[in-house]
Amino acid sequence: MSAYAIFQDESRCISCRSCQVQCKINKGLSVGPKPNQIIEVGPVDRNGRPKANFVFLSCFHCADPWCVPACPNKAIQKRDIDGVIFINQNRCAGCKSCIMACPWSAPQWDGQKGKAVKCDLCLERIDAGLKPACVTACPTNALTFGPADNVPETKRIRFAREVVSGQDMH
Amino acid sequence: MEDKGCKVKKTKRHVMIFLTGGKYCSVCRRSFNEICDLLDLISEGKAYPGTLEAIREQAGRVLNMCQCGAGKEVAAKVIDYLTQYKKDFQVHIDNHVCADAECAKLVQAPCQAACPAGISIPNYIALVGMGRYTEALELIREDVPLPGSLGRICEHPCEKACRRAAVDKAISICALKRLAYDKCFANPAVPAASAKKLYSEKIAVVGGGPAGLAAAYFMARRGYEVTIFEAMPEPGGMLAYGIPSYRLPRKVLRDEIDRIRAMGVEIKVNTPINGENGIRELRQQGYASIFLGPGAWKGAIPLENPQGLKGVMDGITFLSTVNLKLNGIDNRVNATDQRDCDLPEVADLTGKKVIVVGGGNVAIDAVRVALRLGAREARIVYRRTREEMPALKEEIEDAEKEQVIFDFLTSPVKVWGENGRVTHLECLRNELSEPDSSGRRKPVPVENSNYKIDADLIVFATGQQPDLSFLAGTEQVQTDRNRIVVNPETMETTMPGVFAGGDAVTGPASAIKAMAAGKKAAAAMHAYLRGQEPSAGINYPVKRESIPPVHISAAQRSNTSQIDLHHLYQIEKKDTFEEIMLAVSEEAAQNEANRCLRCDLCIACGQCVDVCREQIGANALELGYVGNRDTGTNPQTDFHRPDDKCIGCGTCSVNCPTGAITLEDTGGYREMRMCGALMSRLPMVTCKNCGKPYATAKHIDFINEQTSVQEICPECARYAWSQNVFGQRIL
């Protein structure tokens, strides 16, 4: 795990995909690669009403990643300070080995540049003290970014909201 | 030093440095990003004529509206570059050629770069290989008017530049061009079409040789009304009167010239332009622009002939006389023409001894013609050795086959004769000197080595000069040392609106060079008549869109040539004036086309080799077939190695800047091809989830050496995860 995490409050997500768009703008990507993605699951029956789940999925920044050893050119690395896994675009040759190795297809193929891209939690932005692009773009504040230890706190806040409103958000 | 390298790339670097600096306002960001995109279009050859204006407009926006102040300087620099390097930008946009070979997609193939007329050689070779002869011919006619004639007599500088020569033998480009014409000539699939008339101006072309025909052809294609004024009874210039018909059959030349006529070009034969008012009169007759292509028709006889002995003539007089006689045109304009002398004797040389002095193609033509006219003995006297002969090697070999005697290292000194006729030629022996500073070995006469060779006819094929007497009354057209002076950029003479090209400008050269001059002059004429500046692009070939290569096996690519000129030479025709060379067979032509390395696609930049070796570590590729001939080692043709080492990851195709390497998944196999030739064919693994093949087994094994790989394709991976987590059908 990396020291940071992006946590998605599914009850707030409206599947507007602003996070996807902002991510691509920030990375200057064309059509095709989606370093983060909203996956729609459902709809399922919730208390007699249909309910769709919108799952935000980017990279888990695994503690023991498979993509990093798969790269023959050491373009994809894990940072020592916070465990963020990123692709050095100058080293990437475009062999797609990382894409094959990742069980969640976090590295995505950018056909225009002929390189792999993946979520790196917007390294330059977090190093400059900003939030990742997707988090800033979320209009409903469904995404929160912070140290991974804060995630339980975020979950508690949501549970409290559920109690107050009397709704089962899930 | 400032001006080295590609100017488009240079401009882009300048803008990129500013953009990566990251201190700019929104106007600068938008405009400079737009400028970068436009510059990319130019370097990829996708630009449209207005691209430069669009860049100027964007730079102008920055100058007017920039709020940060930092961008103004860069924008001014961009505009400055556009003005300063206008020519380079023009060549990129108009010709899709990067003269500095920095824009990968715009690098010319060596053969096309070597061709004076810049024919799109790799493309027409590919078309001939596919059997699409009509299209191939159309493509060649984009750049030259007489493909059938060139396919027979061209000196093919393209074959000297061919990279395949480093492997085994250059592609027989010229033979393939001839085949394309012959196939269409047998059944004219495309009738000669008349060109649309778009402009009212009339063009006069003086001289109907290769240069004049090319100028007329390209002006007619542009939509002008063209009239050719030809002094001789038949158009074609040296192709008709210099080149014998066993090399270039008259019906081929006449057919091609008829095609030009069919376009609407009027050819007035027996109409020399001369005297005081030649060019001025043409002007008065309403010709808006004039092209001069008079050629080089004056032979030179280097030795004195004080007694006026008969039987001494220059090469071009000899050849043109014979051609006139043989081709049944005997309505010459001028009865006192010099060509009259010796005509009866020249037409029949039975039992005579003929000496031809010289070592060029004219000499070889003359000596082979003499044999065909029945000469008992035909010999070539040349002052250097066989290696230094400027004539085409094939021609020299053919002459040897026909029992021409060669006297090398021999210089003529004096013509001897009695009763007004030549009897023999006195010669000197030479020996080659030590190489001088330029590395050339000059022939030095050996003292007292004089000897005599019997001869009834001596032909001096030792150089030709343009006959520029027709310009006597027109001082505005400057001449210098018996050449018409032109502006090399535009082929315009010192008289506005009068252009010139061909042998009269360059001195005796080749047909293809003359056609190239005519083509260039036509482009400049068009610009002159439309009141524009001629584009810098007229000095460069046009790189056309590459024909997708045929899929062939590596073995087919590495085949040796099946075209052997010795097999095409018909010894039984050596005494006739019928065409002596056969066309190549379709099968051999296809084999030849498969041998072509397609240098219009693969520019041998080596990026694929780099990534495969340095970055992936598979080390499957090696550009072994672009060898160095100087080292004398036979370069390894490395077509079989990819098969063992290639893991089918496709990195080479991703990094290929021109798209020469392709990756294709068909029928459960992944095929990697280099310019159509199969490099490797590897079995693929299918996704457990959706059943689609997604990677090669070798690639998966390669990754598994380091880590373990899932068994589903990347597309399915995320969805599979959410299915595991939520247990849901996925939208």
Keywords:
heterodimer, A: 170 residues, alpha+beta, Alpha-Beta Plaits, two-stranded antiparallel ribbon, 8 strands, globular, B: 731 residues, alpha/beta, de novo design (two linked rop proteins), Fumarate Reductase Iron-sulfur Protein, Chain B, domain 2, FAD/NAD(P)-binding domain, 5 domains, 5-stranded parallel sheet, 14% strand
Provide an overview of this structure.
- The complex is a heterodimer of chains A (170) and B (731).
- Chain A has 170 residues and is of the alpha+beta class.
- Chain A has six helices and eight strands; from the N terminus they run βαββαββαββααβα.
- Chain A has one domain (4-163): Alpha-Beta Plaits (2-Layer Sandwich).
- Chain A starts with a strand and ends in a 5-residue tail after the last helix.
- The mean pLDDT of chain A is 85.
- With 731 residues, chain B is an alpha/beta fold.
- Chain B has five domains: 7-95, de novo design (two linked rop proteins); 110-190 and 549-595, Alpha-helical ferredoxin (Fumarate Reductase Iron-sulfur Protein, Chain B, domain 2); 202-297 and 466-539, FAD/NAD(P)-binding domain (3-Layer(bba) Sandwich), CATH 3.50.50.60; 299-463, 3-Layer(bba) Sandwich (FAD/NAD(P)-binding domain), CATH 3.50.50.60; 607-726, no CATH class.
- In chain B, strand 10 (410-418) and strand 11 form a beta hairpin.
- In chain B, 46% of the residues are buried.
- Chain A binds chain B through residues 37, 39-42, 44, 52-53, 55, 57, 66-67, 69-70, 72-73, 91, 93-97, 99-105, 108-109, 114, and chain B through 611, 614-618, 649-651, 654-655, 694-695, 699-700, 702-703, 706-710, 712, 714-715, 717-722, 725-726, 728, 730-731.
Offer a quick outline of the entry:
The complex is a heterodimer of chains A (170) and B (731). With 170 residues, chain A is of the alpha+beta class.
